[in-house]
Amino acid sequence: MRKDGTRFWASVVLDPIRDHDGVLLGYAKITRDITDRRREQEALHASEERFRLLVQGVTDYAIYMLSPEGLVTNWNEGARRIKGYDSDDVVGTHFERFYTEEDRAAGLPMYALATARREGRFEREGWRVRKDGSRFWAHVVIDPITDSMGGLMGYAKVTRDVTERRAAEEALARTKEALFQSQKLESIGQLTGGLAHDFNNLLNVISNGLDILRNTGDRTVQVKTIDSMTRAASRGATLTQQLLTFARQQPFQPERVRVNRVIDSFEAVLRRAVKSSMQLQLQLTPGLPEIMADVPQLESAVLNLVVNARDAIGDTGTIVIASSLRSEPEGGALPAGNYVCLSVRDNGCGMPPEIIARAVEPFFTTKEVGKGTGLGLSQVYGTVQQAKGDLRIASQPGQGTDITLLFPALAAASDGDGGCHHEAAEKVLLVDDQFDVLDITAQLFSSLGYEVLSANNGTEALDILHRTPDLRILFSDVVMPGITGVQLAKAARQLRPEMKIILSSGYMAAALSEQKEDLAQFEFIGKPYRLSDIIKKLR
C-alpha cells in the first residue's frame, strides 16, 4: 500500500543479513511494482478462458489441438459429441485412432500432418471412425501452429460431420441419373424415328434408282437417276457425320480458313438445298480475317442452318447468308476481341422464347414425328463451340429467325492477308494419266484462283518444270506409266527444294508398300478427294 492509500501489485524479495558469526543483523528487502504485468496476465488469462469456453461451447465441430508428433492435447464438446470420446479417453493419445484401418495402413494421418506443415494447410473429406466403431463422413482441416521464430508448436484440427450432406448429394445424383436415363430413352426414341424416316427416304431413292437403271436405256434418264442416287448417298454420309459429331467420334481438324471462300465454294450445294420458289442471297463482307475451323464441319453447319430455314419458310421466301466482323466487349459471354460472324436468316415462321431456349438441345425438334433427327442445330452448336466461338439466336414468331455463328478472328499472317493473295497468283502443275481426272482437278484448282498447267505423264511434266521457273506447286498422281509420281516428285525436289509437292492415288498410301519410304517424304492425299482436302494439304 502506498502513502496515499492506493494499492499496487508488488514482487518482494526478502533476504536475512548476518555477521561472520551468524548473528542476525537485519534484512535486505527489494520491492518491485509489477501492477501492469499483473494486469496483462489477468487479461491474457481472461482471454484464454473466453476462448476455451467458446471452443468448448461449439458442438457442431470437433476442435482440438495436436502436438508436433500428433498427440491430442485438448478436446472440445463438439469432438465428444461427434466422435463419442470423453476428454480423458483421448488426451495424450495419437489422433490416428480416429482413422479407418485402411487409411492408417496407407499412412494418411502422418501424411496429413506433413502436408499441413509443408503447405500451411491440409483439407480433405473422408471416412472417420467413432468410439462405437461406426463410420461417418468427415470434412477435416489441419493448420500448423508456429511460434514467433517459426518453430512448430503443434497443429489445430477441425473436423465436421457431413454425412447427411453426402447422403443428400448421393440421393440427388441417383435422382439425376434416373432422370438422365429416362430422358436418354426418350431421346433414343426420337433419334430412331428421325433416322428411320431419313434413311428410308434415302434408301428408297437408291433402290428405285437401281430399278430404273436396269429397265431403261435412255441416257438422259440414267444421268438424272444417277444424280439423284448420288445426292441420296451424300445425304446419308452427312447424317452419319452428324451422328459421329454428336458422339464425339468425328475428329475436329481445324485450319486457317476464310469464311467467304468456304461459302463461295459451297454455294452450289446450298442452292440445291432450297426450293426453286425460294431466294438464296449471299451478303458477304469482303476482306474478313481468317478463322480456325474444320471446313467439312463448317460446311455441314451452314447446310443445316439453310435446311432449317427452308423448312421454316414454307413454299416461298428468302434466305440470306451474311458474313461480317464484330467486336465483343469485356465481360461478355466471349473473351473481348474481334469475331468473324456468319449468319443465316430467313423470313419464315420464327420461334417463341421457350423454343429458342431448347433449340440447341440434342434430339429436340419442332418438326413432325419422324421428320428429322433433332441433331442438326446441336451439331452446329458443337462445331462453333469447338472453334471457341458462340451461337446466337434472334427470332420472334411470325418475323423469321437469324442464327449467327461467331468465330474468333485470327491475326493477319506475315504476308498481310493470310497468304491468300500470294497463293492465288501461284502456278500449279497438275499431272495425271487419266484425262477426266486431270480435267476435274484442274477445275478445282482454278476455282481456288491458281494458274493451272497440266501434264498427262511424267516426261511432259519434267519438260514443263524445266521451262517454267515460277512453278510453286506440283500435284501429281503416283501410279503412271513411265516416270512415276514419286520419281517425278524427287526430280522436282532436286530442281526446286522449296516447291510444295502433293502426291495422290486411288490406292491408300499403306497399299503402295514398295514406295512407302519414298512417299513419306511428300504430302499424300487419297482419291477421291474433295476441294477441302486439297485446301488442307496446301495450307
Biggest sheet, spatial arrangement of strands: 8-10-11-13-12
Please state roughly what percent of the residues sit in beta strands, choosing from under 5%, 5-15%, 15-25%, 25-35%, 35-45% or over 45%. Answer: 15-25%
Low-confidence stretches: 246-250, 369-374, 414-425
Q: Could you state the CATH homologous superfamily of the largest domain?
A: Histidine kinase-like ATPase, C-terminal domain
Secondary structure class reads alpha/beta
Tell me how many strands there are. 18
Broad shape? elongated
CATH C-level class of the largest domain is Alpha Beta
**Average of pLDDT:** 81
First-last Cα distance: 99 Å
CATH-level-2 architecture of the largest domain: 2-Layer Sandwich
The total domain count is: 4
Q: Helix share of residues?
A: 40-55%
Largest β-sheet summary:
5 strands, mixed
Rg on CA atoms, Å: 41 Å
> Any idea of the CATH topology of the largest domain?
Heat Shock Protein 90
Please report the number of helical segments.
Answer: 17
Please name the defining characteristics of this protein.
Heat Shock Protein 90, alpha/beta, 5-stranded mixed β-sheet, 17 helices, Beta-Lactamase, 5-stranded parallel β-sheet, 4 domains, elongated, 539 residues, 18 strands
Structure overview:
The protein has 539 residues and is of the alpha/beta class. The protein has four domains: 53-161, PAS domain (Beta-Lactamase, 2-Layer Sandwich), CATH 3.30.450.20; 187-246; 255-408, 2-Layer Sandwich (Heat Shock Protein 90), CATH 3.30.565.10; 420-538, Rossmann fold. Helices cover 43% and strands 24% of the residues. The chain is built from 17 helices and 18 strands. It has a five-stranded mixed β-sheet with strand order 8-10-11-13-12. The chain has a five-stranded parallel β-sheet with strand order 15-14-16-17-18, with helices on both faces. It has a four-stranded antiparallel β-sheet with strand order 3-6-5-4, sandwiched between helices. Helix 6 (163-215) packs antiparallel against helix 7 and helix 8 (259-273) packs across helix 9 (295-313). The longest helix has 53 residues, at 163-215. Mean pLDDT is 81; it is low at 246-250, 369-374 and 414-425.
